[in-house]
Amino acid sequence: MDLQYFKDALIGKRGELVGTGGIKPLQASMENNTRQGDMADQASGNNEVHIQLKLKQTDAKILQAIEEALWRIEKGTYGVCRDCGEPIAEARLKAIPWTRVCISCKEKQGV
Ligand SMILES: [Zn+2]
Question: What's phi and psi for 87, nearest 5 deg?
């Protein structure tokens, strides 16, 4: 496990979130449009504001998770699933370095 790699990735992502004030607006709204394709039919101006608000909350959650992950690196418990205690697959950590749970626990949560 290359902790330094994940530390760099976490710090880089944190800087991205803090430095730019969030996700790039254009990219973010495009992602939302594809994900919420069916709901987009009823989209209104209010929904747009809603989406922006939701993104901010997501950013805050990710930031919190990044802080926790950095703390876990310091404690030497990084990469261990919070729920089952099993090691989290490195491929998953590379995709989401701030994740707290392994893929099977994540699927069990249904989130
Ligand atoms: Zn697990």
Answer: -65, 140
Burial class from Cβ neighbours inside 10 Å (0-12, 13-18, 19+) for residue 62 reads middle
Instruction: Report how far ligand 1's centroid is from the alpha carbon of 31 (Å).
Output: 28
Position 22 confidence tier, pLDDT thresholds 50, 70, 90: very low
Question: CB neighbours (10 Å) of residue 90?
Answer: 13
Its pTM stands at 0.67
The type of residue at 37 is: G
Task: Give distance in angstroms: CA of 88 to centre of ligand 1.
Answer: 7
Burial class (CB in 10 A: 0-12, 13-18, 19+), 45: exposed
**Ligand 1 centroid vs 7 CA: distance in angstroms?**
21
